[in-house]
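Q: What residues go here?
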């Protein structure tokens, strides 16, 4: 008598592998751990059910050199896309600045990327006007970061914020503004770091 065994992988209800992608081994566990913390001021944050790496994204540093999201690998990043003509973006920027001041470290960074394509003096003037102290002014005056994320189905408008794990994988995303220095947001960031 011959016995045959078939090994089946665990599948999610939609038929895809439940563990996430091989490139994001820890991100799925992090996302699951954070899900209960998504409420209150950050209730609109959608936690990624199957974290995946983000596409290559590059932008300019305040010094005028090129940087990429990959340069932040090893740190949790709150990537925020904004523009000076976007009223909700302008309203949430002070909270992002305070979050960077409260939690910015070698393990966490708020990376706010301005995507204005005209009147390129406006972002710096706006930051001076509202007294930004903790954020670096990253810019992409071609808006290619926005277009790349739009093609990947990650963004539809501004502001858009993506929580990126230390491995470069998306943990969650939010369309629209949030109070990023609220106790809800701080507890979420602390849970990632803890």
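A:
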């Amino acid at each position: 008598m011959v016995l045959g065994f078939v090994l089946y992988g665990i599948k999610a209800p939609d038929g895809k592998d439940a563990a996430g992608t091989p490139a994001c081994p820890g991100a799925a566990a992090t996302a699951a751990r954070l899900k209960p913390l998504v409420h209150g001021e950050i209730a609109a944050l959608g936690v990624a059910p199957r974290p995946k790496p983000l596409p290559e994204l590059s932008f300019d540093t305040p010094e005028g050199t090129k940087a990429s999201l990959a340069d932040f690998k090893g740190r949790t990043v709150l990537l925020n896309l904004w523009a000076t003509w976007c009223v909700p973006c302008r309203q949430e920027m002070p909270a992002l600045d305070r979050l960077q001041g409260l939690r910015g470290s070698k393990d966490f960074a708020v990376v706010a990327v301005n995507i204005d394509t005209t009147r390129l003096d406006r972002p710096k003037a706006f930051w001076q006007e509202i007294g930004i102290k903790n954020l670096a002014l990253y810019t992409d005056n071609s808006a290619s970061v926005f277009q790349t994320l739009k093609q990947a189905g990650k963004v539809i408008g501004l502001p858009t914020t993506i929580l990126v794990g230390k491995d470069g994988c998306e943990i969650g995303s939010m369309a629209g503004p949030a109070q990023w220095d609220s106790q809800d947001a701080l507890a979420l960031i602390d849970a990632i770091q803890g």
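A: Context that may help when evaluating the design: Residues 1-20 have pLDDT under 50 and may be disordered. Strands lie at 46-47, 58-60, 66-68, 76-82, 108-114, 138-139, 160-164, 170-175.
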